Amino acid sequence: MLYRATSHRKRSPHKRLNANTLRIISTAMLPFYKAIATRRAFAVQWSRAVVQANLDRMKSLLCSVAPFAAKQGLGTNGIGYFISFLAQPPMLYYTNGTTIPPGTVQFTFEPRVHRAIAKAVFPLYRELARNPCFASALAKAINRQDQRAVHVMIRSLIPSSALKSVQIENDGFALLFKYSFSKYPYRNLLFREFT
To answer: What was the pLDDT predicted at 133?
Structure first.
C-alpha cells in the first residue's frame, strides 16, 4: 500500500521531459542524497521512517537537509519512498525516489543499501544539476526513446558494478542496483506520474 501526502493527480498528455525539470529535481535532491551517503545515523532514521510509513517523520528528516524537496509531495510504500515535483503546471509531476521492487518483500528498507545507492547516484544528479548541456542531452535521449544513449550517459557517471540495468521508464529513467550484501534489488527512479 502506498502512503502519500499529496493530492490526486490527473494525466497530462503531450508534455515532454525537459532539461529544466531534470535540473530542478536534481538540485533539490542533491543535499538529501549527500546526507544519506555521508551520515549513517540519518540514513538509519530515514529507513526506519520509510518502513513505518511515518510521513511526518520523513518530512521532518527531509526538511532538515533538503528544505525545497520537503515542500514537495512525499510518499512511501514501506519498501521505498517517492518525492514528487510539479514540473509544469498545472498537472505534470515527476517523481524521484528509491524502492525495492513491489512483490519482493514487505516493510524492509536497508540503510546500508540506500547509502551505497545514494553514493553511486550522487555524481549523476550533481551533473544534471550543474550541467545544462548534459541535462538537455539526457532529456532529449529519453524523449526519443534512445535506450543506448541513456545507458551510455548514465553509466558514464555511475561506473558501479552494482548498477545492473539502466532503462527508460515512464518518460524518465529506472536504475536497478543489486549489492552482494543484500538479498534484494533496489531501484532508483526518476519518472513521470500518470495518475
So the answer is: 98
Residue carrying the nine cell digits 555524481: 123
Q: Which residue has the cell 543535499?
A: 31
**Would you say 116 and 33 are in contact if contact means Cβ atoms under 8 Å apart?**
no
- Strand 172-177: give its sheet, edge to edge: 3-4, 73-76, 80-88, 92-99, 186-192, 172-177, 163-169
Q: Which residue has the cell 528509491?
A: 98
Assess contact for 3 and 55: CB atoms under 8 A.
yes
Task: Report how far residue 128's alpha carbon sits from residue 100's, in angstroms, rounded to the nearest whole number.
Answer: 24
* One-letter amino acid of 64: S
Residues 98, 188: contact at Cβ < 8 Å?
Answer: yes
Is residue 147 classed as helix, strand or coil in its secondary structure?
A: helix
Strands (E), 10-156: 73-76, 80-88, 92-99
Q: Which three cell numbers stand for residue 88?
A: 509544469
Helix (H, G, I), strand (E, B) or coil at 79: coil
What are the backbone angles phi and psi of residue 100, rounded to the nearest 5°? -75, 140
Split at pLDDT 50, 70, 90, the class of 16 is confident
